[in-house]
Design brief:
heterodimer; A: 117 residues; mainly beta; four-stranded antiparallel β-sheet; 0% helix; B: 107 residues; seven-stranded mixed β-sheet; globular
Chain lengths: 117, 107
């Protein structure tokens, strides 16, 4: 079955960097666009970024443009989120999710990022 | 950006109640609307897409309707496992935007 497993979260100081990974299995990863969605503690869901199946198209929410980069390695069935110049407001659980005609049909369990000095 | 507004933000209901949650888009999104359920400490779960199509494996007590700017999620008979937070999301354009969530609590 479809499985998405995020990793790479942790505690990081403001201004530093972190790279998240999302390992996919159980489906043909290279055929699907993939998203990152985050959730600040006690808050709602916020869409972060998307990458097309062939890496040709990427979109970001305004608050992370220029700081975050979404990428993927289809040979490794892995999605990435490179997060630079981290801010306190970037704190939260980061989920990866698959995009299909039924969008966000599968989600990972999430990885917690805490930006604090 | 398209803004999504859910109402109410929270509600209290009893087991067996019929519950309706509303989602309004700031501009027309055709039927590009999805609903998600999230329980505490868990990842969201897809319930409905294309405004009214049930995701595979989702029980028929959940239903969705609407198009354009106004949408509803209905739970026909609330069960203990349905107490959770529900989110709508538009996928007509980027940035994909979620509603603020509706928390369904036990009365």
């Amino acid at each position: 079955q479809v499985q998405l497993v995020e990793s790479g979260g942790g505690v990081v100081q403001p201004g530093r960097s972190l790279r998240l990974s999302c390992a996919a299995s159980g489906f043909t990863f290279s055929s699907y666009a993939m998203h990152w969605v985050r959730q600040a503690p006690g808050k709602g869901l916020e869409w972060v970024a998307v990458i097309s199946y062939d890496v040709g198209d990427k979109h970001y929410t305004d608050s992370v443009k220029g700081r975050f980069t979404i990428s993927r390695d289809n040979s490794k069935n892995t999605l990435y989120l490179q997060m630079n110049s981290l801010r306190a407001e970037d704190t939260g659980v980061y989920y990866c999710a698959r995009d299909t005609s039924a969008p966000f049909d599968s989600w990972g369990q999430g990885t917690l990022v805490t930006v604090s000095s | 950006d398209i803004q999504m507004t859910q109402s109410p933000s929270s509600l209290s209901a009893s087991v067996g109640d019929r519950v309706t949650i509303t989602c309004r888009a700031s501009q027309g999104i055709n039927s590009y609307l999805a609903w998600f359920q999230q329980k505490p400490g868990k990842a969201p779960k897809s319930l409905i897409y294309a405004a009214s199509t049930l995701q595979s494996g989702v029980p028929s007590k959940f239903s969705g309707s609407g198009s354009g700017t106004d949408f509803t999620l209905t739970i026909s008979s609330l069960q203990p496992e349905d107490f959770a937070t529900y989110y709508c999301q538009q996928y007509k354009s980027y940035p994909r935007t979620f509603g603020q969530g509706t928390k369904v609590e036990i009365k």
